[in-house]
Amino acid sequence: MYYKKWEKQTKLKNVNREASIQETEQQNSTDENEEPTFEEVMKLFNDCDDLEHKTFSELGIDLIYFSPLVDDKKVEDEIINSIYSSTTEEVKSWVKKKDIPEATSIKDIKDEILSGSVGIFFENKTYYYNVYGPETRGIDKSETETVIVGAHDAFVEDITTNLSLVRRRVKSSNLKAVKLKVGEVTKTYVYVLYIDGIADSDMVSEMKERISKIEVDSVYDTNMLAQLIDEVPDSLFPQYYSTELPDVVRSKLVSGKMVVLLDTSPIAISAPSSFFEFIQSPDDYNQRWLLGTGLRILRAVAIFITLSFTAMYVAVITFHYEVLPEDLLITLAESRARVPFPPLIEALLMEVTIELLREAGARLPTKIGQTIGIVGGIVIGQAAVEAGLTSNILIIAVASSAIASFVLPNYNMSNSIRIVRFFLIILAGFSGIFGIVFGVALIAIHLASLTSLKTPYLIPMSPFYWKDWVDTFIRGPYWAMKHRPIQTKTDNTEVNKMKQ
């Protein structure tokens, strides 16, 4: 009875709240279209103690701006010094000479001030002068994507700096940057980058439309943005390639793909993407093609190891011990003689322990984290074997799986593979090798059903396109890489004119 009464009151409150919000939005929409005045703008920014207000009473000029968003030196040199000790006519001449834009509505001046401009109120008119220049983090190496041979600079949280890093690498007027906003409250800037004449126009339109349709209060990071525009948001696997490296962004743009940058985020995402991109690294292209090919094959093997080693241990010990050689079977029997748990519980216990150590090492300061990972793994593993909680063979399988997961260069895909591993271990515990085969088949079917910007996720394997295999599992020589990926649907397919 009480619950029904509470539910009825809650619904009534929500209805009243929605009506109030709609009324407020209509009022704000009407107010923001009015001509801006100094009094109205100051009322808009009431209780904002970081808002600076400077007045020149003899000239009837008021300046307002947010000090954390502007370059104080520019404000002083370009605006205040130009107005100070000037006459009204000189100020008029300065405004005309600098071609300072005029705001025609309260919304215009509000958005400009919040974007790092100084609002100038002079003779019943409102102007804005952009002097954006907040403190930003310096360009440094990426913590998540290590490059051994190649450029080491990485994106930062300032979108202007990130755009400059891309522009330095792609000096072309065909590089377009479309500016959008996301977040009803934060109004965060988003840039969609593409090379006109290479990127498919329909894909560009699709990407812009998806971002424009986002209706949330705030978007905190580019990875969050990717989840909001995913075609299958409930999938474990990332459908957009994320990177912190400007060199990777350059290669994606030149190949005909789009790149999305978000202000306040050091991550860029590219689309469309395929599963096989996530086993590729920038180092592959900076070394001899045979070395690059060997590394890619090694990463493919690493995926197999991290998915199957622990699951195979559980399957063999539980159901298929007859497949083991007699000597190894005796060793396993002796190792598990004191273990009180069935293989499935034993494996899950050790896998969870490894994940706890990994997470602890990632969250702690660098030096302490490395110590926890190494010492904790050795001490806990040895203690678990001596206490009879697990076998030596399982420790080897779990450690091999954990090490193999680190081989994948993309952090998001590495996390996805780690989660899928638990799924296969559980199936192996109930159905043995048949369960593993069934699980792998389900994963393959799921991957084949995924799309990235309406393109197949497993291309060029499914659908099969042999020309793209020269840059999939192998990293072919540059003279053989003549075509852009079919996934981009570009009309400009020719990459270069190099001949063998």
Automatic annotation (TrEMBL):
Q: Is Transmembrane included in the keywords of this UniProt record?
A: yes
The annotated region (Disordered) lies at 15-36
Compositional bias ranges of the Polar residues kind: 17-30
Q: Where in the cell is it found?
A: Cell membrane; Membrane
By its UniProt entry, which PANTHER family does this protein fall under?
LEUCINE ZIPPER PROTEIN 4, SPORE GERMINATION PROTEIN
Indicate what this protein is called per its UniProt record.
Spore germination protein
Keywords of this protein's UniProt record, alphabetized?
Membrane, Transmembrane, Transmembrane helix
Q: Is the keyword Transmembrane helix assigned to this protein?
A: yes
